[in-house]
Amino acid sequence: MSNLEITSILKSNQSVSVPQLGLGVWKARPKECLEAVKSALSFGYRHIDTAAIYGNEAEVGSAIQESGLNRSEIFLVTKLWNADQGYESTLRAIDVSLKKLGTDYVDMYLIHFPVSGKRNESWKALEKIKSEGKAKSIGVSNFMVSHLKELLKETGTVPAMNQVEYHPFLQDTELKEYCQKNGILLEAYSPLAHGQKLEDSRLTKIANRYHKSNAQILIRWSLQAGNVVIPKSINPTRIKENADVFDFVLSENDMKEISSWNENFRTCWDPTTVE
């Protein structure tokens, strides 16, 4: 996937077009979040990812309204928090999120984490939410292959997307291959590994060749690998820099080199421990 631009999309198995580059707002405090989303939209981003637990859905909604863009131009994602999982509580949770976001639908609603004993009932509620038009598509987050296999066995709808931590230092190839086989988009959160690998000398060497930052190389690698990518930042300069990755192409050799760096380096929670 070398011919990319900020408007590039990936088609989901639920016939929804997902902008491949988005802005994540995890840990962004309300006022920071408002300004970050407004900046991102002004720079051409059209995909915003939030969650009930982030505590900033209202600010995301306000930023969209203040942007002057039509709601239909923006791909808006939010997530069901663990404490709200279960059939009836999920149906209530989406209404709370929609009210905070100031919209009558989201483009994708995700189960935030594969909570044991509740995830399948939550998914059935998501199917109802989709049928009612409150979400145009539904998916999951932090689901491993075992969780996906269970979900596909127990329910009738294949998730449109699986949002997981994914970067060159954490590549679950089994999970990615399973998602590809079943038409599930893989969305990479923490594509910069929370900055913990940005000083890697191998990365710096490649970045220098392209006259790009180390962060831009990581984002471009993930985009070319066919992932949806949602780098998080509240800094307007970095938000713009993170999107300045469409004027160069990583060579096949550099893609292979970066793809060889996996060390199962996880910076967030570990869903592999969930039954």
UniProtKB/TrEMBL annotation:
UniProt xrefs under PROSITE patterns: ALDOKETO_REDUCTASE_1, ALDOKETO_REDUCTASE_2, ALDOKETO_REDUCTASE_3
Pfam families in the record: Aldo_ket_red (PF00248)
Family membership: Belongs to the aldo/keto reductase family.
Keyword Iron-sulfur found: no
UniProt KW Oxidoreductase keyword: yes
Binding of substrate, residues: H112
Domain NADP-dependent oxidoreductase stretches: 21-262
Gene Ontology terms for molecular function: oxidoreductase activity, acting on the CH-OH group of donors, NAD or NADP as acceptor
Positions marked as site (Lowers pKa of active site Tyr): K79
Active site: Y54
Protein's recorded name: Aldo/keto reductase
Gene3D superfamilies per the UniProt record, alphabetical: NADP-dependent oxidoreductase domain
